[in-house]
Write a structure and sequence with these properties.
Elements lengths: L10 E5 L3 E6 L11 E6 L1 H11 L4 E4 L1 E3 L2 H12 L8 E3 L6 E7 L2 E7 L21 E7 L7 H11 L9 E5 L9 H13 L3 E5 H8 L5 H7 L5 E6 L3 E6 L2 E6 L11 H14 L4 H16 L11 H8 L3 H6 L4
Parallel strand pairs: 1-4, 1-9, 2-7, 5-6, 9-10, 10-11, 11-12
Antiparallel strand pairs: 2-3, 7-8, 12-13, 13-14
Amino acid sequence: MNTDLIPAEGHVVCVGETMAALTPDPPEPLEDADRLRLAVAGAESNVAMYLSDHGIPAVWLSAVGDDPLGRRVLTAVSAAGVDVSYVRTDPCRPTGLMVKNPGPDGTCVHYYRSGSAASALGPELLDREPVTRARLLHFSGITPALSTSCRALMDRALAPSPARRPYAVSFDVNHRAALWPADVAAPVLRRLANQADIVLVGLDEAQGLWGRDLTAEEVQGLLPGPRVVVVKDGARTVTAFTPGGPTTVPALRTRVVEPVGAGDAFAAGFLTGVLRGETPTRAVRLGHITAASALQVTADHGPLPPPRETERLLGLPEEEWQSLTGR
């Protein structure tokens, strides 16, 4: 993939909220649970952690409360090799909290993040380190849903045309219906996505936001601005639309323990491929390999295969890759 998509020098900075997360252990409905497991959960920090796993130095930029949960978040993200030195500790606002409620039809998530430390992030964040020396900023569509100031941050980060920005921007649409209704989210997310350099979006979420019968090609047609549009069709395929044309790669067959976090893992794998100058096929494959590591664990962040196995999978002939997929 053309390496002029992203500047050669600078930080990779992932911006967004990470919360403390409570999950019944063992997984069962909350009302029946006797024990809760404490972990951390955040789309952008997940991406930063997987980037670090792949050997890409990453910075997580956010805010946490001056409380035990905030310290737990910082410890967990830092332990994955991510630079958390720019995260602000807010003495007045708490760290956000999410609680998972497993059930027979899937896992429901309850958020307690209104007025959190990260919800007070604003556009002034862009005026200081590490953004001023960034090569790539990564955002998700969760951030503009958190508050007016967070939406202003996104608007300013994406306001200049890509040719005038000193950094590239990747944007995972990542619509969270629990945070804002689709009719409010749809135009905002489409506008922000269209101003990014790299966009990642699930076909199902694009259909829920912008048109029930959309195909991957039609999603790309709705977003003419980005250089790269990646459309993920669930556990089936991913199509990357690049200046060289579309590339479709089927997903690996994987035993799914918990789907939460797989989209962030895919984003990190794909971005790693882009940052390394890989071909679109290898970048999408790396996204699939990374997503599989998240699908096989209850946490958002799972261990990658050994580097030698990853390289073997990336180099497989097409027919051998196909034999490992559900197609």
